[in-house]
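We give its fold:
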Amino acid sequence: MVNLNKQKISQILAVFIIFSLIFIDHVFPLRYINDMPDEIRVMEGSQQSFGFKLPRGIKIDFDTSFIQLESEPLTINTIKEGSSSLEFYLFGLLPLKKVTLDVLPGVYVIPGGEPIGVKFKTRGVMVVGLSEVIGIDDRVYRPGRAADIQTGDVILSIDGHEVNSADDITLWLNKVGKDEATLVVERNDKILEKKVKAIKAKSDKNFRLGLWVKDHTAGIGTLTFVTGDDKMFGALGHPITDSSTGEIMTLSEGEIYKTEITSIEEGRRNKPGEIRGVFKDEATPIGYIEKNTAFGIYGYVNDFTGNKRMIPVAFKSEVRTGPAKILIDLDNNGIKAYDVEIQKTVNQSIPSSKSMIINVTDKELLKKTGGIVQGMSGSPIIQNGKLIGAVTHVFVNDPTKGYGVYIEWMMREIETGKYKTVSG
């Protein structure tokens, strides 16, 4: 009886081990297959590894004229440019996953790292606040609010006259002495017409609309890349926004300038640091801004004297957790590479500026800045000799960490030799 029980236990144990092996060999890799993006873009002649072994019983249909596959680990070797797909089947029958595969020609850019000064003038003026007006009758009025003007609205014209500055509104109201004005405003990509009652203020007898508006901004950021012969640039990795409303500012015109770093305020917990500097030779911009987008500013450089060595651009599917470097000049002595660790990558099918989490590990950089500080936005992130992204944000509660955006999202903002339609 005892021997029989031992035999049954041995049989049960054997079955358990067999099913455990099947589970480990199939279910774990099936999870990785399911987590693969629906679309993969890879460079012609490159290799893309996915870090897991293809389990037995999994069949992949693919076009052998475009790619070759290895199973341990699953690796794509690209042969030529074109579009294809990977279709995964369990036991050759049950469809598991279809991945669209685009094999594209290699893209090379000059990595940046130079600090740049940015001057930015809005198209129209942006409403950044609503205020009260005390009239000559001592009553309190809120004309902007009463006309449904909202913060973030962009005023394009008043009574048919184009608005380019805050003064344009004030001068027109008091030139004609009107107590009502018709404003054309842009809100969420829609054009609206608003009639606003102007109030003669008790303080100076001028007509006012009860609006705070902004028509320009300036600051310091970092150049991310410059393309080859056409000299297009990308910088910042995030949009220029109004500090009061958080709205992306619409572009009328803008320039970038060489900048000299004057000081660095070290970042601390709940108190982000900052790079401070001055524009050099404001009469001669080194480039002109054509676009202000969710993934940075873009334009053309006309005086680029920095690094001329080009490196390949990585697609988001190539970015891995692990060591990387960021490029930046912090002391006017040239660009230097600093060590960081990519702690997490986000599988993004929809572009977002928070594509990866980076952790500063370089002791020298931590000593100089405390981690990531304002002004470092746009600093190129390099991994395995490729440009993979740009620094975008710092963690307020931990300045040693921050976000980066995939360079693929930034590159989609430009086309070879020309720009898409300017934002706004």
DSSP finds five helices and 32 strands in the chain. The chain has three domains: 2-106, 109-118+216-419, 132-209. Confidence is low (pLDDT under 50) at residues 20-26, 416-424. The first helix runs from residue 2 to 35.
